[in-house]
Automatic annotation (TrEMBL):
Pfam families: NUDIX. Keywords: Hydrolase, Magnesium, Metal-binding. This is Colanic acid biosynthesis protein WcaH. CDD domains: NUDIX_GDPMH_NudD.
Length: 150
């Protein structure tokens, strides 16, 4: 396991690879969470997380879906690949000055049959289901999330 200092060196020197989950319900609304963690703390964002070293995409997808949504054993094959995106942040997880964060993000879209009891309070302080138009109209939704709907 990485120490905080080792991970900060990685963030300082390289891009991180991540998966974002663009989760919709049967009404076409999209799930966004209010971020507790840096970067992008305090903004509304789609759920997601970084891929770990030596972790397959399928394993990472299932782990991230469980950690971010509380859905165990979700298969990557149940989602539609939306493409590769870049996310740049001026800050970092440790709030270390002059260290930006750069993500290469694999975006996957999926529709859930039920929107009941989705989410993990340790990751987000709240959740909203918004239509893409509502999401795009809000100033507190992060630009990197809005990019999925433009």
């Amino acid at each position: 396991m990485l120490t905080e200092m080792d991970f900060l060196d990685i963030v300082r020197l390289t891009p991180l690879i991540a998966i974002d989950l663009i989760v919709s319900d049967h009404e076409g609304r999209v799930l966004i969470g209010h971020r507790r963690n840096r970067p992008a703390r305090g903004t509304w964002f789609v759920p997601g997380g970084r891929i770990h070293k030596d972790e397959t995409l399928d394993t990472a997808f299932a782990r991230i879906a469980d950690a971010e949504l509380g859905i165990a054993r979700l298969k990557r094959s149940s989602a539609r690949f939306e493409g590769v995106f870049e996310h740049h942040y001026s800050d970092n997880f440790a709030d270390e000055p002059d260290v930006s964060t750069h993500y290469i993000v694999l975006a996957y879209a999926l529709t859930l049959a039920s929107s009941a009891s989705i989410g993990r309070p340790d990751q987000h302080s709240g959740y909203l289901w918004l239509t893409p138009a509502e999401l795009l109209a809000r100033a507190d939704v992060h630009e990197n999330t809005k990019a999925y709907f433009r």
